């Protein structure tokens, strides 16, 4: 099973210039006072995992650039790179860069389309479309309060069990007939 090794950040939210978060262990805990940037770490991770801007607590992608929350972005770009270790590779670097009002995606330094980026993320078990790979502050309650069918749908999407539903039902029917 793979794991996150390190996040390299440049001018993203509360980080000015180039900063490194990590190296991470298999289990990590981030502590800090209110407003110190704990949720920004989750935002950086969500961002590099291809999350849509509306889920990142900002209106426009450029608002993610350091200083933009005060109307004074220090640059036109910001960058988050995720170093990930897999069973096959010691390190894969997924990188998302803010360019103007859009994003550029790179894998190991090579420019790729968003479709290719999410396809490669899926190979390491990160499902951008599931949206709930990361559980944010307040989300535990909203997940608990979901309609049971909605919650099942969400869990099926994350676990990808939906793909096996047809096969499962077929085998179940065959067993019942036997
Ligand atoms: P809490 O414990 O209250 O949840 P937290 O540790 O999760 O707090 P965050 O929400 O991660 O805190 O960070 C908030 C901080 O990030 C604020 O101080 C805010 O000024 C700063 N911040 C947010 N956006 C930017 C930005 N674009 N540039 C610089 N700083 C920013
Ligand atoms: Mg927080």
UniProtKB/TrEMBL annotation:
Q: Where in the cell is it found?
A: Chromosome; Nucleus
Q: Which residues form the RecF/RecN/SMC N-terminal domain?
A: 3-178
Q: Does the keyword Hydrolase apply?
A: no
Q: Which UniProt keywords apply?
A: Cell cycle, Chromosome, Coiled coil, Nucleus
The GO terms this record gives for MF are:
ATP binding; ATP hydrolysis activity; DNA binding
Q: Which GO terms describe its biological process?
A: sister chromatid cohesion
Report the domain of life of the source organism: Eukaryota
Residue ranges spanning the membrane: these are none
- Gene Ontology CC: one annotated term: nucleus
Give the record's family classification.
Belongs to the SMC family. SMC1 subfamily.
Q: Which protein are we looking at?
A: RecF/RecN/SMC N-terminal domain-containing protein
Origin species: Amphilophus citrinellus (Midas cichlid)
Q: Which residues of the full protein are shown?
A: 1 to 178 of 288
